[in-house]
Amino acid sequence: MWDSATIMMLLKETGTTLLITLSSTFFAYILGLPMGILLVITAKDGLRPFAPVYKILDVTVNVVRSVPFLILLMLLIPFTRYIVGKSYGAAAVSVPLTIAAAPFIARLVESSLLEVDKGVIEAAQSMGAGTGTIVWKVLLAEARTSLIVGATIALGTILGYSAMAGVVGGGGLGDVAIRYGYYRYQADIMIVTVILLVILVQILQVIGTRLSKKLDKRNTG
Amino acid sequence: METIIQVKNVGKTFIGKENTVEALKEINLDIHKGEIYGIIGMSGAGKSTLVRCLNFLERPTTGTVEVEGKDLAELSGKDLRSLRMQIAMIFQHFNLLMQRTVLDNICFPLEIAGQKKKEARHRAKELLEIVGLSEKAKAYPAQLSGGQKQRVAIARALATNPKILLCDEATSALDPTTTKSILALLKDINQKYGITIVIITHEMAVVREICTHVAIIDGGSLAETGTVEEVFARPRTRAAKKLIFQGDTGSEEMNRNLATGKRCIRIVFRENSSFEPVIGNMVLACKAPANILLADTKDIGGVAHGQMILQLPEDETVAAKMIAYLKDRRLEVEELDHYVG
Lengths: 221, 341
What we know:
The complex is a heterodimer of chains A (about 220) and B (about 350). Chain A has helices at about 5-40, 50-65, 70-75, 75-85, 90-115, 120-125, 130-140, 145-165, 175-185, 185-215. With about 220 residues, chain A is mainly alpha-helical. Chain B is an alpha/beta fold. The mean pLDDT of chain B is about 90. The interface of A and B includes residues 124, 127 and 137 of A.
């Protein structure tokens, strides 16, 4: 059973999982990062309090986050088909993953930015800094380690979700685990895929932690 | 002298869900160019809110704030931001960017002002020299002591050549020695560059050390304003007396003495030679002892400055003689019928 074809297949699907995870995370940040920033600055005690935007974002994020991913995956099939042209395969699975992860990322970004010392923001305001400068040079720059920790959490979560995409023929290790392990009762392949997933999460975690430590200048004493 | 900051009838009310707080009530202040103006009050008196009204980090609910004749309320967002480059501010907790080096922290206001990176770095290096931290250019704030952090904050504040420097409890997180050196630096900056300094503090010692003028704020209102000499020598209000006598642990005991009818007086030294043993001479001349309950004096250039509280003998004639003696020595003498400690 452990012929070269199986091993090649496992390697290929590991690559697919990585690709799905990284691309979905990337697109989810394109949506989620601005959402997180807007949540922080339009909040009641934010830089530019603006209740309508804050409330809409807040509710949207909560609604999307409360829909179970598997259901969201099904619900979004027409939308996915419209964007990618088909509803199965690696590219297709990235669409619901991105949509599901964006609000989660918005919350991660929001909490990272809220950690930034209010006094430092006030200091920047006292120097005449505008909102854009404060977001870019104070909020994002000062919160960078926390943002990286958040991104590592996001990657791990999206990797886990990507395994569920196997249900709709999304490809990747999760797909293998379902097809071989579940439908064909090949427990050994299932175990191997689980081990591979664990290794992937570990690698991402180590990279994330190292990077955030390296960039953190708060404890250099 | 030219007025640089004029505060007229400023009030600030914070409206909360459950209660509204009137943080400031009808504040009127005139701060002139080149002054070191102290605003002193107990915590919660509204002094931090007041200083934030001077650069509109807080917008007053009523009244106007004018800086160099410009009404801040009438400025557009952009004009207000460019005016803020003229009004620098330092804080109790320094508020440095923790992820930037010392040099880059000082460059920050210059970046906001749109200066070129090379010029900004050049200027930042000059400023580091002024505050005496050239060797720390590449360090991060986390590697510095409190006093060093405040020096960096001062350098950062001076980067855009401001006309006014607001100090919000700038020495409250520092030990007494470091406080002294920071105050000396501020005084130096005031004299060398003619920058008007506004100092918010709860410590009378800070005001006495460097301020030329002082405003005492109590419960959101101004209790007293004037030169430091005036207010210190003749505090009129309870709030002022409380601040001037603060930090004295024996006050309860003293109050008891006052209650039992023993006379206490407060004397203020302003022009006597510090070589003259005034109290000793008084005791010898009157041939009766006086009890020193509080003494807080220091020698500034051979002249005694500070205050003492004496408990006089019960004999009325001797007590009167002592008061006359002290007045004769050109000391401010004030009877304390109600000691507030």
